[in-house]
Amino acid sequence: GGDFNQKIDYVFKVVLIGDSAVGKSQLLARFSRNQFSLDSKATIGVEFQTKTLEIDNKTVKAQIWDTAGQERYRAVTSAYYRGAVGAMLVYDMTKRQSFDNMARWLEELRGHADKNIVVMLIGNKCDLGNLRAVPREDAQEFAQRENLFFMETSALESTNVETAFLTILTEIYRIIS
Ligand code: GDP
Ligand code: MG
User: Fold this and answer.
1) 23 lines ligand 1 (CB under 6 A)
2) Is this complex's ipTM strictly greater than 0.85?
3) Cβ(156) to ligand 1 under 6 A?
4) Could you tell me where the beta strands, DSSP code E, fall in the chain?
5) How many alpha carbons lie under 13 Å from residue 7 in its C-beta half-sphere?
6) Which residue from 40, 46, 66, 130 has its CB within 8 A of the most atoms of ligand 1, so it is best to mutate?
7) Per-residue pLDDT for 6 more than 80?
């Protein structure tokens, strides 16, 4: 990394979707900059962050898109999904509603995105285990039924964040190469 003349073999666009306040922006901050903020402001404007990494001796630039406070129903535009090869469906495991809404986020995604898109379900805030409102089994069952990868993460404690992004990027690489 950091090489000025680095040759990029692949650019993978991955979109983050899910209700407001589930931790999408903090997952992205943790993955791309190893940062976390407890009082993160709502994202303004469509934004993405990039991170360059090696997969199978190839240089992959991950371009991770974050919703711009567009989390209201049907507010995320088709431009957001355009060209995406991966998607992370994020819920807050302490907020049942954010998990129940995953079905309609998935429907939105499937209506806009390429049919071969790799999708991962993310139960974030697993550091708040005593406040858990979504049993792991419920999420596993949903993921299995819908053919999604599934992981529980904590952007705060860094749990599984790197692993989740690496898993989806590696799967995208496997499909594309
Ligand atoms: P977004 O609206 O989905 O982008 O959510 P944010 O990333 O802005 O996070 C919303 C709130 O949840 C902020 O106060 C974050 O600090 C907090 N948060 C995000 N991830 C975690 C996490 O893994 N654990 C805990 N305890 N709080 C988190
Ligand atoms: Mg945000």
Assistant:
1) yes
2) yes
3) yes
4) 10-17, 47-55, 58-66, 86-92, 118-124, 149-152
5) 3
6) 40
7) no
